[in-house]
Write a structure and sequence with these properties.
Blueprint lengths: L2 H10 L8 H14 L13 H34 L15 H30 L6 E8 L2 E6 L4 E5 L5 H5 L16 E4 L4 E7 L4 E5 L4 E5 L5 E5 L5 E7 L11 E7 L1 H26 L5 H15 L1 H4 L17 H4 L4 H10 L15 H13 L11 H8 L9
Parallel strand pairs: 1-5, 4-10
Antiparallel strand pairs: 1-2, 2-3, 5-8, 6-7, 6-9, 9-10
Helix pairs in contact: 1-2, 2-3, 3-4, 7-11, 11-12
The chain binds copper (II) ion (CU).
Length: 399
């Protein structure tokens, strides 16, 4: 039994016939020492703001407890001492100006005492000025995209928990559903401004240790910030019900000392530039059908199978089947098929994959969808075609 409950239980047995106010107050005061150890309480977190939010939460909690004890204590005492069986007679008085003033003034004073620290903390939480680093966070069914606005670095961060753990075929790790392939890396001791938005539905970026929880809305940018005190790994989740895999888009932040972070961001920028150059190289190569099918299957299982299912059957009434569908089999729908994969389909859960995958991966996955599960169209899409659809040559505007 958690300590708080055993304390409550013990205190409830103290004096069966009378409420021991003294004991309750002692418990209330002493519990402040252990409040942080209670696992279902808020965390103190790893930032000055999260500590302030925690203190504010505890202050308001204790004020509420005290009000509850006084009000319910007075009620219970009155019920017991002025009960009918004791021959109590109701007092007959009306319109006492003094009492009315008192029961208006006391709650107003309590509310002001609560509002003052709450407002001060909220104002600090909203002050995103003078940031050292800005990260654009984009929620997308069902992953997060991070872009460092001062550096040429951006990437998607996807759930890394294996499908076998999810299906129960493997034992679950200690960080089950709270692990990603690429964590967001941030420097310690710097003010980091977050800009939140979404590609599709409303998500919410929530890391309890930073006391940051902000909605990521499509077509709108929300702001928040943090300054992390300690290096380490911090975990969070999407906190807005955003569809089928809402529970599968965790957040992992790795906070590194500033010097280490500078090294990491420089290396990542160089790696990403090299990968981009390599992708352009690959885009000029021609794939055979078996090569495209091999790569396409990997891409399909990693990005498409959650909705369209590994066997291409979809989920009837929710996600369309690709196996035997007109779009994935008929020659006249080939261009539409490519367009949907690259740019998404508005009004549906089908998101644009054009900026999430390389031209080669996009070509391979469309080839796979057009040839797997008896679709067998024989079509082989090449990366060069995808590239031309992604970056159409702009007509000369001078003409
Ligand atoms: Cu979400």
């Amino acid at each position: 039994m958690p300590a708080i409950f055993s304390n409550v239980h013990r205190e409830c047995n103290v004096g069966k016939n009378a409420i021991n106010h003294g004991a309750w107050m002692v418990w209330l005061a002493s519990s402040s020492v252990s409040a942080n150890d209670i696992t279902f309480n808020m965390t103190r977190g790893a930032t000055a703001i999260s500590q302030q939010v925690y203190d504010l939460h505890m202050t308001i909690f204790y004020i509420c407890c005290a009000i509850g004890l006084i009000v319910f204590g007075a009620m219970l005492w009155s019920i017991v001492h002025h009960r009918k069986s004791r021959g109590a007679k109701a007092a007959q008085f009306h319109e006492s100006t003094r009492i009315e003033l008192l029961w208006t003034a006391i709650p107003v004073l309590i509310l002001v005492a609560m509002a003052a620290p709450a407002t001060s903390t909220l104002l600090k939480m909203e002050d995103t000025s003078k940031a050292d680093l800005t990260v654009l966070i984009t929620g997308s069914q069902w992953k997060w995209h991070y872009k460092y606005l001062e550096h040429p670095v951006e990437f998607y961060s996807l759930l890394a928990t294996s499908k076998k753990q999810i299906s129960g075929d493997e034992p679950k790790s200690g960080t089950y559903l709270l692990e990603v392939d690429q964590p967001l890396v941030l420097p310690v001791g710097k003010k980091i401004r977050f800009l939140m938005t979404s590609d599709d539905v409303i998500h919410s970026w929530w890391v309890p240790a930073f006391a940051v929880k902000k909605d990521a809305n499509p077509g709108y940018i929300n702001e928040s910030w943090t300054r992390i005190d300690k290096a380490g790994t911090y975990r969070g989740q999407c906190a807005e019900l955003c569809g089928k895999d809402h529970g599968f888009m965790p957040i992992v932040v790795v906070a590194k000392p500033a010097g280490e972070f500078d090294g990491w961001i420089a290396k990542t920028a160089a790696d990403q530039a090299a990968a981009k150059a390599q992708q352009q190289d690959l885009a000029s190569q021609t794939m055979t059908l078996p090569q495209a099918m091999e790569l396409g299957e990997k891409v399909f299982l990693g990005h498409c199978a959650a909705c369209h299912q590994p066997a291409g059957t979809g989920l009837p009434g929710i996600f369309p089947a690709l196996k035997g569908s007109k779009v994935a089999t008929l020659p006249e729908h080939r261009a539409q098929h490519l367009d949907i994969v690259l740019h998404g389909k508005s009004g549906t859960a089908m998101q644009p994959f054009g900026k999430q995958l390389t031209a080669q991966e996009l070509a391979a996955v469309v080839t796979y969808e057009r040839n797997a599960w008896d679709n067998k169209t024989g079509d082989v899409i090449q990366a060069a075609e995808v590239q031309s659809l992604l970056n159409p040559v702009e007509p000369n505007k001078d003409k």
